[in-house]
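Escalation from tier 1.

The customer reports that the assembly of three entities below gives different structure tokens on two consecutive runs. Tier 1 could not reproduce it. I'm attaching the input and our single run for tier 2 to review.
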Amino acid sequence: MEVSLDDLEVLEPDAEVLLEFLTRMEFRSLTKRIADGLGVAAPVLPDTDPRGAAPVGQDLPAMPPIDRSAYSVVRDAETLQGWIAQAMARGEVAIDTETTGLNEMTADLVGVSLATGPNMACYIPLIHKAEAGEGLFGSDALAPGQMALEAALALLKPLLEDASVLKILQNAKYDVKILARYGIDVAPIDDTMLMSYAMNAGLHGHGMDALAERYLGHSPIPIKDLIGAGKSQITFDRVKIDAAAPYAAEDADVTWRLWKTFKPQLHGAGVTTVYETLERPLVPVLARMEMAGIKVDRDVLSRMSNAFAQKMAGLEAEIHELAGESFNVGSPAQLGEILFEKMGLPGGQKGKTGKYATPADVLEDLATEHDLPGRVLDWRQLSKLKSTYTDALQDHINPDTGRVHTSYVIAGANTGRLASTDPNLQNIPVRSEEGRRIREAFVADQGKVLVSLDYSQIELRILAHIAGIEALKQAFREGQDIHAATASEMFGVPLDQMTSDVRRQAKAINFGVIYGISGFGLARNLRIPRAEAQGFIDRYFDRFPGIKDYMEETKAFAKSNSYVQTLFGRKIHTPEINAKGPGAGFAYRAAINAPIQGTAADIIRRAMIRMEAAIDGLPARMLLQVHDELLFEVDEGAVDPLIARAREVMEGAASPAVHLDVPIVVDAGQGPNWAKAH
DNA sequence: CATCTCACG
DNA sequence: ACGTACGTGAGATGC
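Tier 1 run:
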């Protein structure tokens, strides 16, 4: 079966038939690309992936269609007690919270919905505002017919904290954090988003609306229908209860149905252990880290911002002088015109939008020809630091806590890594000296110290283990500088005669291998001829033959299974791996990388999940995760025991599930701020 | 809202 | 012949 985009011209008259056929044949990604190319919508058919959740209506407990008219509004204690009794009797209940915003640290709870079965759902409005003319005290008065917040929560708390009643949520961390601020510690939980992620990472997204459409054949009421969008958007407490109730109850109903769908399929998908040991237990851990936040010194950021602004103004004047005209330095389009048209500098490449591309590596090359590109690079660095860090971070300081509270996305990265948003605290500058100073604004609270522990070369260690590279494993066992050892093995340079340049090249190759190396990519990274780069790769494969075998075996596995796995059984689906065309190359390299990056992600997840018990009793909190680093805040007197316990947990995190042939090593640092601790 | 650019591991 | 390093999130520009 070979279908390429080139065939489309011929087939276009029957495009709909073709697209439906491809969809039924499960060539989803290809179907989507063709549909996009034709500018038509891809047909939506029930999911039929045997590795994922079952198709709509097949092997499922019979569920009646969603009937919003069956939902009810709970307005008094007696009715609420009836719902709670039913939830207790069943031992499981789906929960959803409605709030005034997306930020769990600042949003207020507006209402709670419960579902105990299909169409058996209710909404408990709590602080909806009265409509104009409805209340005595204007628009801030509460609408009538709502239980008092405290009274409702007092009744709900025992249910939500009852160890014998499973609470089913979609994106549980959000609701767990909201309810934690009202003194409720929701447990135990299941999370349909994380079930979907464990089964189908790489296949599709895991948001509720997408899951409802895919697995229930149902489109929930869009939130925009209630609160609008853009400037005129209102908060949920301004939505009429009669409109809010079907929306909110539906979300609980859908969550319950998704759970009923996914729960029996985890085992068949082979990811029960992944879900139960790497996904679900992370929810309360991350919730506590996010609520703890990290103290950020606004004055430090403010001073740096002013200094950056001054330097930028000076650079901008110089740039305009060098260009002979005034233009927006922040506009790549305008800069490209100046560099490649007006000044006639070489190497101008136009992107798909017909404009010149001016990425840093191009400007670095041009810096040998003219002064202007170098000034632009300096300006860009300052612009980035100012806008993304010194300015934007200040807006994220919570006025109540004086701290910055990021939010981790558990089901975002396909490999099992976390992502950090609002703000992203996983990309705070560190590589440049000027940038690193941003970290001086991340400080320990009074009497405390920041402690950073990070895995040393974890991905290379995992590669050495998975691919069985004896020379690499031995180097790690001997505690050698791994890039120098690689360089020595490849180029025959004795370790005591190693130069920084040879080591740098070996380092680039080591990273390249993790990324699914290509001659082209290595050549570009090292700025050497492609043939020379290919020579390096050939030599690497020659000296470390296990690497080549690993790459070939991984590719073959991905091709026949359409997924790859981490050492802990996490599955990362690679649906594009058998596609014809350019997508296959990306999928191939992603398939090489995913088991390595994903295993490292699994290991630090295991460490985080065990960490709280391990440091229990110490005056210390885990604050941040940055892929291979954990950052703690600890009382000054407890630094040493914290480091000892945290290191033990991190270094032993793979055990006992997986035995690694290489030692796992964790480095530690401490200081009054993140710059010093790292 | 897409694109470009750049911050991190 | 062609085009490629893996995984992310966010701000500014400009359609």
